[in-house]
What does this fold into?
Amino acid sequence: MQYRQLGRTGLRVSEISLGSWLTFGSSVDGDRTADLVQRAFDLGINLFDTADVYAGGAAEEVLGRAIRELPRHRLVLATKCFFPMSDDPNDRGLSRKHVVESVERSLRRLGTDYVDLHQCHRPDPATPMEETVRAYEDLIRQGKVLYWGVSEWRAAHVVDACRIADACAGYRPVSNQPQYSIMRRQIEREVLPVCEREGLGQVVFSPLAQGVLTGKYSGGERPPDSRAADRERNRFMDAYLEDAEIAKVDALVPLADGLGISMGQLALAWCLRSPGVASTIVGVTRPEQLEDNVGASGIVLPDEVKDEIDRLFPAG
It folds into this structure.
C-alpha cells in the first residue's frame, strides 16, 4: 500500500480506503464487517469512511465494533453529517446545533474519543457558512475532530469556506469527497483545480461506478448476487447501465488485459493518476474484492492507456 498526504496537511492516507455506504450495517452483517475491516487493515488501509446517515447510524455502530481491537492511532476515521436523522427540524443540515450534536452521536456509535476527519455531507444553503466554519473551529479546539472536510460541494462553496476560515483565523477544510470515476469526470472542470489551489485533497467515492467498471455487467448481464440486481441498493445505477455506457466499459477490457491487471485496478489507478486525489473509497462485501482493489495502489498507467480512456470517456 502507498500513502498520500491529504491536501496540504501532514496527514497521510492510504491510496485505497474502505467505505461503508450500502454495505456495513445493511447488506454486510457485523461479523463480516469485522473480517473485512481486519483484512483491510492487514493490507495497509488506514482510512475508513462512513457517515451518520448510512443505514440510519448502524454503519457507524458496526464499524465501531469492528475497530475495537485495532490500534486507534493507526486509523484515520472519517464520518459525515448533513442529511436528516429524524423528523426533528434541527436534526439535519450544517447548523452549529446539528454539527455538534451529530459529532457527539457519531463518537458514541464509533466508540472513540475523536474522529480524524468530519465532513459536511452536502452544502447547506439554509445555514450561514460562517456558522458551520466556526462550529468546526470549536470542535477541533476541543479535540473531538482533528480535520474537517466537505463532500459534493461546488467550487464556489469551497472557496467561501476557505475565505471565511481565513478571515476568522480558523481551520480550513482539508478535503473534498466527490463522486469521481472514468465514467463521471465532472469535478475536473472546476472542483478539482479549485481544490488543488486551495489545498484540499480529494477522497473520491464510487471510483468503480457502483461496480460497473469491474466489468461484471459486461454485455448487459446483471448477476443475481450483484448490486444491480438488488432493488434496495441499485437506485443510483440506471445511468451507468445504459447499453451505450456498457459498450464503452467493455472496450476497456483489452486495456486492462494488456497491462495484466483487473478492470477494477485499471479504474482505481486511473483515478489515482491525479495528484489531487489522495484516496479512492471502495465498498466491498467479500475479502477477494478488497484484495483486488488494494492491488491498484502504486500502478502507473502508460500514457497510451490514459489517452484511450480519454477517447472512450472524454472529460465533460
Remarks:
- Residues 3-212+264-300 form a domain with the TIM Barrel fold (CATH 3.20.20.100).
- The chain has a mean pLDDT of 94.
- The chain has one domain: 3-212+264-300.
